[in-house]
Amino acid sequence: MLAKRIIPCLDIREGQTVKGINFVGLRNVGDPVELGAKYAAEGADELVYLDISATEEGRQTFTELVARIAERIDIPFTVGGGIASVADAGRLLDAGADKVTVNSAAVRDPALIDAIASKYGSQFVVAAIDARMTDGVWRVTTHGGKRMTDRELFAWAHEVCQRGAGELLFTSMDHDGTRDGYPCETFARLAELPIPIIASGGAGSVRHIADVLTLGRADAALAASIFHYNEIPIPVLKRELYRLNINVRQ
Predict the structure, then answer these.
(1) Which of 29, 49, 184, 207 has the most C-beta neighbours closer than 10 Å?
(2) Residue 58: what pLDDT?
(3) CB under 8 Å, gap of 24 or more: what pairs does 139-144 form?
(4) At what angle do helices 56-72 and 86-95 cross, to 10 degrees?
(5) What are phi and psi for residue 229, nearest 5 degrees?
(6) Annotated catalytic residue: which of 11, 88, 98, 176?
C-alpha cells in the first residue's frame, strides 16, 4: 500500500507566499523558496506552488522563481497558475518543476490536458479542480473560485482523467482557508477514479487530515495555513498520523 502524502501548498503573488480565506484577505506569510526548503527539511513529501495572480508578467516572474526553487528543493514540486498552453507547461518543466497543474484554461479548452499529457506524459499533468456547492450540486469554478461554470464536479473529474491527467487536485472553495475540515464524502466519491486524488481546502487539525486520508480515501492531503503559521508542524502531524495507523513516510 502506497504511503499517504503530506503536501504543503504555497500560493504565490508578486513573488511572495500569501494566504487568505476563500482566496480573499490575502497577506504575506514568507519567502516561497525559504518556506519550501523548510518544509522539505521537515519531511514534506511534495510541494505545490500556485501563481494566483498569473498575469503574463507574473508567469515570466514565476518561471524564474521555479528555477530558484529547483536549486534549493530536493523533493518533488508541482507548479501551476495561468498555464494555458503546452509551451507554458514546457517552460515550467524546463525550469525544474516536476509536475504542472492546469485549471481554468483546461475548463475553457479541455484539449489542453490531452496536449500536455501527449507531449510530456500523464505523470507530469495534475488537473486542479475548484468547485463550490450550489443548490446541492458541486459546480466547477475558475479564476480562483470567482467564476461559476456549468460543469459538474464529478463529470469534469471523469473527463480530465479520460483526457490523460495523472493526478487530480480538488479544492472545495467553500472550505478553503476555513480550517473546518475537508468534505470527506466528496473525496471518497472522487477516489473511485483510477488516478491519485489530492485533497485541498479545510485543514485545521490532525483529525481533519486523518479523516480525509481514511474516510475520504484521498491519496494525499494538501494544506497551507496550518503549516505557514506553524500550528501543526509537519513532523508532529506525521507522528500523529502514524499513531492513528495511517501509512505515512517518517
Answers:
(1) 49
(2) 57
(3) 140/107, 141/173, 142/103, 142/104, 142/107, 142/108, 143/104, 144/23, 144/52
(4) 30
(5) -100, 10
(6) 11
**Which alpha helices (H) appear in 109-233, and where do they start and end?**
111-120, 153-163, 184-190, 206-214, 225-228
8: closest CA among 176, 192, 221?
A: 221
Q: Is the pLDDT of residue 140 over 60?
A: yes
Burial of 81 (0-12, 13-18, 19+ CB in 10 A): buried
- Catalytic, out of 45, 88, 130, 219: 130
Q: 113 in helix, strand or coil?
A: helix
What SS3 state is found at 170? strand
For the question of residue 94 being annotated catalytic, the response is no
pTM for this one? 0.92
Alpha-carbon distance 169 to 141, whole Å? Answer: 14
Contact 52, 79 (CB under 8 A): no
- CA 199 centroid distance within chain: 8
Residue with C-alpha cell 472522487?
Answer: 190
CATH of domain 15-243: 3.20.20.70
Q: Please, what is the Cα angle at 83 between 80 and 224, to 5 degrees?
A: 15
Cell of 41: 527539511
Please tell me which residue, 144 or 159, carries the higher pLDDT value: 159
Is 31 considered catalytic here? no
